[in-house]
Design a protein that fits this description.
By secondary structure, this protein is an alpha+beta fold. It is built from 5 helices and 18 strands. The protein folds into 3 domains: 113 residues, Mannose-Binding Protein A, subunit A (Mannose-Binding Protein A, Chain A, Roll), CATH 3.10.100; 103 residues, no CATH class; 76 residues, no CATH class. The strands form 4 sheets. Strands 1, 2, 3, 11, 12, 13 and 14 form a 7-stranded mixed beta sheet that branches. The protein has a 4-stranded antiparallel beta sheet with strand order 4-10-5-6, covered by helices on one side. The longest helix is centred in the last third of the chain and has 17 residues.
Length: 336
Amino acid sequence: MVLALSGLTAPSSGATTEFRLVELRKTWTEARSYCREAFTDLATVEHQSANDELLSAARRLGDHAWIGLYDNRAVGWTWALGEEDSTNQYSNWEAGQPDNKNYGQTCGAIKPSGLWIDRFCQVLRPAVCYDEKGPDDYIIVAAQQTWYEARAYCRSHFTDLASGTTRAETNRISSLLTAESWFGLHRKTWAYWSDRTPNSFTNWDQNQPRGRGSPVVACAALHTTTGMWWDVDCDVENYFICQKVYSRQQQTFKLRFKSRADMTDPALQQQLLQQLHHKLETSGLSDFKLRWTQTDGEAFHKEPKTKKQKDVISSKEALVRHSYSNVEFPKLNLTQ
């Protein structure tokens, strides 16, 4: 389906998020607790203009001030093959792993014992590929490669790097090994803000983030003179910047679709939201959230057929709730 929107206007200038500098010295965790109690959360910065507002709020103190970005080495590990976050799933880390030694170990290797270990992605070692169509599920590639080279090779010649999502998979892979080898486990650093917003914008200073030892959690701070970000020990006491997110208006639209597709499929519903989200952004809107509104447990409902519609594909409709700030929608027209 292709969604086409027309008659949309850009949002007006009223801001929905306000940054507040708190001139109390606290650790990052203490600052987050304070912000959540007194405001909304530690500051989330998603674009350069927001970073400029942050710097303005900090009044150029010449010191660091905590913001909401952090990096937890124990979470966010995912599989190259596309499986979701493995944090709460099966894992087989060696004792003390992942330890992020010397900072930046974001790729996973598996030992002949079956234990996992985090390594620097640029180190050369063999790899284990997975082939969903081949006679053998797992293929050992003896050539010494970086993790990224190994992933590219596996995707070119087979399916992808192997995943160890269960004990059985891990045991099968390890039984083939004679040396520590790359498999599909890897992690994106500095992936989330305190309010769980995925991180897509950074403003690190030169040689940052550099890591300090091998902390479980690393925290980001704004340098209040330059506006650049620093990786600072989370236990240091700094001033901090909170954000206050004001309540948003909501508007509900009823959409009608004609399709032979199964509109109850969550994947299809998510695809429609993504397309609608893209169209809104390309039309000049930026500060909004979309979700389906369910009635009787369903988002889509068949429209009763009239006599003239007996030979026509049943129409289906859904409610989509649009959260926004000062946005006007004179007309919303979607076509397949």
